[in-house]
TrEMBL record:
One of its GO terms (cellular component) is plasma membrane. Keywords: ATP-binding, Nucleotide-binding, Transport. InterPro entries: AAA+_ATPase, ABC_AA/LPS_Transport, ABC_transporter-like_ATP-bd, P-loop_NTPase. PANTHER family: CONSERVED COMPONENT OF ABC TRANSPORTER FOR NATURAL AMINO ACIDS-RELATED, HIGH-AFFINITY BRANCHED-CHAIN AMINO ACID TRANSPORT ATP-BINDING PROTEIN. This is ATP-binding cassette domain-containing protein. Residues 9-239 form the ABC transporter domain. GO terms for molecular function: ATP binding; ATP hydrolysis activity. The keyword Ion transport does not apply. The keyword Cell inner membrane does not apply.
Length: 243
């Protein structure tokens, strides 16, 4: 991967208005193949709206999104998923009454034969560290384990780019540590963009960080540089622990 490689994903002047509110303001963004990028920024900065345009949940007011050299702005979510972008939102997407294996098998079954889906589900269960709980209804799992099932369901679609919206929210310290490990493993073969508020978690996973502020990009650099920056401290970190 070099800076001269064609980006996996890029946006140009990407804009989203809600009535008079400019939620995302002419954002130019670029992600290299295989990259792991964290998005941070204060509440209301536009991160979720940006994500929802990438995944097709929102149709941008203006601007372009290019994924693997194809224009995808305004495409339907299922088309974008088929092209290789998988998203885990903050809204739960699991079937609580089905067990762990069934949830992941169903996600894999969308594009595979029953036997291939079984093999994929078995591999994913190992990766998300839930093989030993495969027959437990998802509703009986801890919050952190349910998040891993959701990540597993995204992986079952075999995306080249994974979007995760606050994957460590509400997790215990141990679950957060395991999630960071899991994300590193996923990044061995896939690109990721992760919206996250937990600075300690960002330190565990991040290489490069993009800071959103008032709908635009305030700064983009290596995690250490960003977390030390005075402007970022002023608009975002405030009283947060970042030492
Ligand atoms: N569906 C909507 N209708 C109207 N305004 C919206 C809508 N979604 C977001 N906004 C507004 O757009 C701006 C950006 O919101 P967004 O949720 O994208 O920020 P965020 O950075 O994801 O914040 P948070 O960290 O709290 O999730 C905010 O001013 C918000 O109030």
């Amino acid at each position: 991967m070099t800076d001269t490689a064609a980006p996996l994903l890029s946006t140009r002047s990407l804009t989203m208005l809600f009535g008079g509110v400019v939620a995302v303001d002419a954002v130019d963004f670029s992600l290299a193949p295989g990259e792991l990028r964290c998005l941070i920024g204060p509440n209301g900065a536009g991160k979720s709206t940006f994500f929802k345009m990438l995944s097709g949940q929102y149709v941008p007011t203006a601007g372009e999104i290019t994924f693997r050299s194809r224009s995808i702005a305004g495409s339907a979510p299922h088309e974008i998923a088929r092209l290789g972008i998988g998203i885990k939102t903050q809204v739960p997407n699991v079937f609580n009454g089905l067990d762990v294996h069934e949830n992941i098998w169903l996600a894999a079954r969308r594009r595979n034969s029953p036997s291939t889906a079984r093999r994929i589900a078995r591999d994913i269960l190992e990766r998300i560290r839930l093989s030993h709980r495969s027959m437990v209804p998802v509703g009986h799992l801890s919050h952190g384990q349910r998040q891993w099932v959701e990540i597993g369901m995204v992986l079952a679609g075999d995306p080249e780019l994974v979007l995760l919206d606050e994957p460590a929210a509400g997790m215990t310290d141990e679950e957060t540590r395991l999630t960071a490990e899991l994300i590193r493993e996923i990044n061995a073969s896939r690109a990721l963009i992760i919206v996250e508020h937990d600075i300690q978690f960002i330190r565990m996973i991040a290489d490069k960080v993009t800071v959103f502020h008032q709908g635009g990009i305030l700064m983009e650099d290596k995690a250490d540089t960003v977390l030390k920056d005075q402007r970022v401290r002023d608009v975002y970190l405030g009283k947060k622990e970042y030492a």
